[in-house]
Amino acid sequence: MDIRPAVRTLMLAAAAAATCALSHADTPKPAPAAAATTTAGAAPAAAPTDADLIKSAMSAAPRAIGKGATIIAMTADGKMRTLRKGTNGYTCMPDNPTTPGPDPMCMDANAMEWVHAWMDHKAPPAKVGLMYMLAGGTDASNTDPYADKPTAQNHWISTGPHVMIVGAEPSFYDQYPKAVDPDTRVPYVMWAGTPYQHLMAPVK
Fold first, then answer.
1. Are 116 and 18 a contacting pair, CB within 8 Å?
2. What is the pLDDT of residues 123-154, one digit of tens each?
3. 193: in domain
């Protein structure tokens, strides 16, 4: 999200939705109710099971990391609940079904701190963090960390599967392209020049 999401890369609009209640991650909540379809006469869409959500969340990271990660998911009321306690310091979240692209993500503890700082508009910690979005990522502004929709000025970009490195020294990011309209097929810096700049590294 810190990125990313290291962020979200990360640090995408989806990351905002997925992390807005991370402080409640250890509070068990009931599963979200099934959403009704908009087609007249159609049966309500089935809510994903916990097993479905865990599978989605684990798809964000390499198997060796996903299998030992804590899995959290958002409930219908916007809170977070823990689906599975982990052992390796990583936290993974499933795809957000309200966003247009697949965007499950997985992050280490440093990246989680980075995301909290980003969400709270605070200075991020000077700790290198890693975020995975190997299933892809929802599109985002490459210049505005808090943009929630494309405009003529905020350089909206499309992203595919990637990893994000957040919290590194500025000199680290100076080694990579910082174009406002980057070639997303190669590593580049998102949100360059802001406290939340991070490296986006495509993997496909």
1. no
2. 999 999 999 999 987 778 999 999 888 888 88
3. yes
